[in-house]
Amino acid sequence: MRKNLSYKILISVLALSAFNCNEPANTAAADILSASSNIYAIQNNASAKKVVVIKDENITQNIFGDIAENSNVTSNEVIITRSTITGLVYGGLSSRGNSNYNTVTINNSTISDYVVGGYSEAGNASKNNTFITNSSIGYDAYGGYSKAGNASKNNTFITNSSIGYDAYGGYSEAGNASKNNTFITNSSISDDVFGGYSYYANAYNNNVFITNSSIGDDVYGGYSEAGNASKNNVFISDSNIAEDVIGGYSEAGNTSKNNVFITNSSVFQNVYGSSSAESNAFGNNVFITDSSISYDVYGGASGTGNSLNNNVFVKGSSIFQDVVGGYSKAGNALNNSFFYR
Question: Residues of 17-27 as b/e, b for ≥16 C-beta within 10 angstroms?
Fold first, then answer.
């Protein structure tokens, strides 16, 4: 992520003017309001679903399905088709509440900035979805993002599209990132891909699925700076990865039971079932079939901790450097295995 979303968001009283909305059936009546920098939906019933539909437009404003300062934003939608948006796109954004079940759908469009299914500053972001098809996104794409709460069960789907920087299923700065998914098909991601990311807490049960795509930097099933990374998975087929592939990564915590599956693909740096800089790596696995890895493969790797019960399975593939079941620079490496056929 190259820009901090917190600096991009300013909740304020917007000067209102009319803006046309094509309202789908079976949604509560809503108006679309416009200011110098933002477009969003309002309704008399604050808890009702809000939908913003933009088609064949060129807009130089930020787009929000809903904005709330002290309450939850739930089940809102932004649908953009054959349009150019010079600004941010959010399905739902809350300052102090939760952001749940919001959706952004982008088809045949160009978005200059971030795309986020659901965002919360102080609450949780859960079950939000971002769908990007035949489109170009200038910066990062997120299913769900929480600054202080948890990010869980969020999804990002990218098909036949390009992302200018990173792609995340779910992202949290202070909370856990769990059960988030990123799906990438026939697409190009310029930088990193994450299933789930947490800076201060844990990343677990997150997944990345990459098919027939090109990734310009690293791929992580789950990533944590200060917490643990466990039970995260990366599935890659018919794709090219420019840098490392890591099932679960933690700088300070344990990494356990993470998996990487690579089939008919090329990875131009290293592959890790898991990597922990300062703690333990145990019970992680790498499966490589009919693929090419330019550097090393590790079932589990640790800088200062132990590496235990990790495995690498290789079939019909070329590994150009070392293959190591488990590695520790300063600790013990025990009961690790490598299988080749």
Answer: eebebeeeeeb
Measured at the CA of 92, the angle between CA 91 and CA 97, to 5 degrees, comes to 160
CB 142 within 8 A of CB 114: yes
Neighbours of 190 (CB within 10 A): 17
DSSP for 314-329 reads EES-EESS-EEEEEES
Give the helix/strand (H/E) hosting 5: helix 5-8
pLDDT for 264-296, tens place per residue? 999 999 999 999 999 999 999 999 999 999 999
CB 48 within 8 A of CB 73: no
Is pTM beyond 0.85 here?
yes
CA–CA distances in Å: residue 106 to residues 135, 206, 214: 7, 23, 20
Radius of gyration of the chain (CA): 21
3-state secondary structure of 259: strand
Pairing of strands 136-137, 193-198: unpaired
The tokens describing 26, both together, are: 């079976």
Tell me how many degrees the CA angle 193-194-199 measures, rounded to the nearest 5: 130
Read off the pLDDT of each residue in 31-41 and give the average, rounded to a whole number: 54
Cα 263 to Cα 276: distance, rounded to the nearest angstrom? 25
CA 155-195-214 angle, to 5 degrees, is: 100
Task: Examine the pLDDT at 143 and tell me if it is beyond 80.
Answer: yes
Q: Are 141 and 119 contacting, i.e. CB atoms less than 8 angstroms apart?
A: no
Tokens for 221?
Answer: 């099933």
**Residue 161: other Cβ atoms inside 10 A:** 26
How many C-beta atoms surround the C-beta of residue 339 within 10 A?
A: 12
Per-residue buried b or exposed e for 92-109, using 16+ beta carbons within 10 Å of the residue's own CB: bbbbebbbbbbbbbbbeb
H or E element in which residue 95 lies: none
